[in-house]
Design a protein that fits this description.
The chain is about 40% helix and about 20% strand. By secondary structure, the protein is of the alpha/beta class. It has three domains: about 1-125 and about 235-325, Rossmann fold; about 135-230, no CATH class; about 330-365 and about 375-400, no CATH class. A six-stranded mixed β-sheet has the order 7-11-12-3-13-14, sandwiched between helices. Strands 2-1-4-5-6 form a five-stranded antiparallel β-sheet. The chain starts with a strand and ends with a helix. About 35% of the residues are buried.
Length: about 400
């Protein structure tokens, strides 16, 4: 199963948004509140009725219920764009042009909803949603407590615990999965096993209970066990919200390598991230031809002005995007670092307020009276005239980080 397109109408922060996905890695970036997690959850809501051990088909009521379980709104009015009223729609299309659609219309009483005719033609497939908060530390007793309605978590946590409860693969299928497992087991220093209702990492010097591992390692252990039990395999879809949470930079780089391995094994991946290193490592592989064409696609979610609906921009690498909240903030950091350094060398005051005022004034003057661009040597030209400025910002950011 490969998802090729998503269309959102009047849904949460989106008025009209369209996403054209690649079969490999799809990366969502943007400031907080621009709907990255909503995009992942919307797709997961449409696909999850088809995960193993559930019914082969789903009707409109199933999709409504699933959307409610995943988003946990007070009622569906919370999922309509605030400036718009009436209805909202989600349309998911796969590589064979089959659709899963959900359209809900608000009744005049303002409380009840009517399902408009929908299609659910996408065939059954495996999908896994990994939320920002890891679950191994809470796994013991979680499923029973959730089913007893004692926990206030959305369905992504319950579904992940259910996926983790499956038994490991055996025989030929287990051997095939080992290629994906190997780099994760190397990071963990051992093999992840489920004994009773506890996860352990069997290492050379003894067993370590999963909840005693660092949070970032617990997240990696979860992914490793999902590979080991066949939840993540060829023709499956992984939705991973903030994979960088709890990871140091060295581990982020290893996770990027693993994500590339997953994609090469036939898993379609969707990520929402704020991490500079993670997204730029993926972009680097695309920029320098380290992966086949169309293996990664980036989506920038942004508001053209405060209070406006979120819009979507997409490209094959980060430097083909006009809006990049991560890079913009690092460039601002670099500007401030340069200004502070220059003032310190001159022996001037370096308190925060005057520096910010001076930087803002300089930026305003620069934008008001643009200077003619100097001709750059060939070694400075990266990606042509449209990308030179951002490429320079990237190099400047790297220098600031090294300093």
């Amino acid at each position: 199963m490969t998802i090729s397109r998503l269309e959102l109408t009047n849904f949460t922060v989106f008025e009209k948004a369209s996403f054209e996905f690649c079969p490999g890695i799809n990366v969502l970036i943007g400031e907080n509140g621009t709907g990255k997690s909503h995009v992942l959850k919307a797709m997961y809501s449409m696909l999850s009725p088809w995960i193993p051990n559930r019914r082969q088909k789903a009707d409109e009521a199933d999709l409504e219920q699933r959307l409610e379980q995943v988003f946990r709104p007070e009622d569906f009015r919370s999922l309509v764009h605030r400036r718009l009223r009436g209805d909202f729609g989600i349309t998911l299309i796969d590589a064979l042009d089959r659709k899963a659609e959900l359209h809900l219309s608000l009744e005049p009483d303002g409380r009840s909803w009517t399902s408009m005719p929908s299609q659910t033609g996408i065939e059954k497939g495996r999908c896994v949603f990994v939320p920002p908060r890891e679950v191994l530390a809470m796994y013991r007793g979680f499923i029973a407590a959730y089913e007893g309605r004692e926990l206030d978590f959305d369905a992504t946590y319950y579904d992940l615990c259910k996926a983790l409860s499956a038994a490991p693969l055996r025989g030929e299928r287990a051997e095939k999965a080992q290629a994906m497992l190997a780099p994760l087991e190397q990071i963990l220093g051992g093999k992840v096993v489920l004994e009773g209702d506890r996860f352990l990492v069997k290492q050379a010097d003894g067993d370590t209970e999963a909840h005693l591992l660092a949070e970032g390692l617990r997240k990696i252990a979860s992914i490793a066990y999902l590979v080991a039990n066949g939840s993540l395999t060829a023709n499956s879809v992984l939705f991973w919200d903030e994979p960088e949470a709890g990871l140091n930079p060295a581990l982020v780089t290893k996770v990027v390598d693993f994500i590339r391995t997953l994609t090469a094994s036939g898993v379609q991946v969707f990520l929402a991230s704020h991490d500079y290193l993670l997204v730029h490592r993926l972009s680097q592989a695309a920029e320098y031809g380290q992966e086949p064409a169309n293996f990664v696609r980036f989506f920038s979610l942004y508001r053209p002005k405060p209070g406006a609906a979120v819009e979507v921009e997409q490209g094959g690498d980060l430097f083909s995007l006009g809006h990049n909240a991560i890079l913009d903030e690092f460039a601002r950091y670099y500007d401030d670092e340069q200004e502070l350094s220059a003032r310190a060398m001159r022996g001037e005051e370096t308190s925060d307020a005057p520096v910010k005022k001076k930087v803002a004034k300089a930026r305003s003057a620069s934008s008001a009276k643009p200077k003619a661009a100097k001709k750059q040597p060939k070694s400075e030209r990266v990606g042509g005239p449209k990308t030179t400025k951002k490429a320079s910002a990237k190099r400047g950011t790297k220098k600031a980080i090294r300093a």
